[in-house]
Design a protein that fits this description.
10 helices; single chain; globular; Serine Threonine Protein Phosphatase 5, Tetratricopeptide repeat; 255 residues; mainly alpha
């Protein structure tokens, strides 16, 4: 038998061997895979369940948040209506069906109750945060300065920069009205250094200058007005500062 014939006879055996090895490898791999799946089936099911649970929680949270946000918006609108209700002293004729309050204090107390309730129930929503700010304002109008200060401080420390700036502005006025000018000056300087859309730097500086004038410190006020006139020549704050430095004669103002 020639070498070529022997090679041809060996080839079928080799091919069969190779095929058997491949089959064995496939079976082994598949078996290992099935064994892994069987051993880790509980882990896979648990992980899948956790992921589905997380997704469900996120979806429900969004739905609940949107629902609460809508409820807060509606409640805030009603509170603002109370806050804007006209005043009518006792004895004054009022058209039938028109709601009024006898004084600013009475109206402030009624509105404050609504704003405070919204802030308490929906504090994480935009309307809830704004309601807390208005709760602080109505505390001031109602004559409850301590509650006003506590409430406005919470708003001032919040992450919403524009709302925090408004709260600081109201706090500064509260400090000034209660004889704590150093604290008011500090807040005005903070607002001037880090302005917000709701409280521009010029507004904070004008308020600070007005405070100095009320303290009998015209020179300090003039320094602020002069700087504003130069830095904001074409702006509102610069125009007001220029008028403060060069007030028109009384006769000209009347005209």
């Amino acid at each position: 038998m020639s070498a070529g014939t022997q090679k041809e006879e060996r080839n079928p055996v080799d091919q069969q061997t190779k095929a058997a090895l491949k089959k064995d490898k496939f079976v082994t791999t598949t078996s290992h895979g099935l064994e892994w799946a069987a051993e880790n089936r509980r882990s896979v099911i648990t992980t899948t369940a956790i992921l589905l649970g997380v997704i469900l929680i996120v979806v429900l949270s969004v739905v609940i948040y949107n629902s609460r946000a809508n409820a807060a918006t509606g409640a805030f609108g009603e509170a603002m209506q109370t806050y804007q209700t006209p005043l009518a002293p006792p004895g004054q004729a009022v058209p039938a069906g028109v709601k009024t309050f006898p004084s600013i204090i009475a109206r402030a107390k009624a509105a404050n109750a609504e704003f405070s309730d919204i802030a308490s129930r929906y504090g994480l929503t935009p309307s809830g945060r704004i309601a807390r700010y208005f709760a602080g304002l109505t505390y001031i109008e109602a004559g409850n300065n301590q509650a006003a200060e506590d409430t406005l401080k919470k708003v001032a420390s919040g992450w919403n920069r524009n709302l925090a700036a408004l709260a600081k502005l109201a706090l500064a006025q509260l400090y000034h009205d209660s004889g704590r000018d150093p604290q008011a000056i500090d807040l005005y300087n903070q607002l001037a250094a880090k302005p917000a859309v709701t409280v521009p730097s010029g507004l904070a500086k004008l308020q600070l200058a007005a405070l100095y004038e009320s303290e009998g410190k015209p020179d300090e006020a003039k320094k602020i007005y002069a700087a504003l006139k130069q830095d904001d020549a074409k702006g509102t704050a610069g125009t007001i500062a220029a008028e403060k430095l060069n007030p028109a004669p009384p006769q000209a103002r009347q005209q």
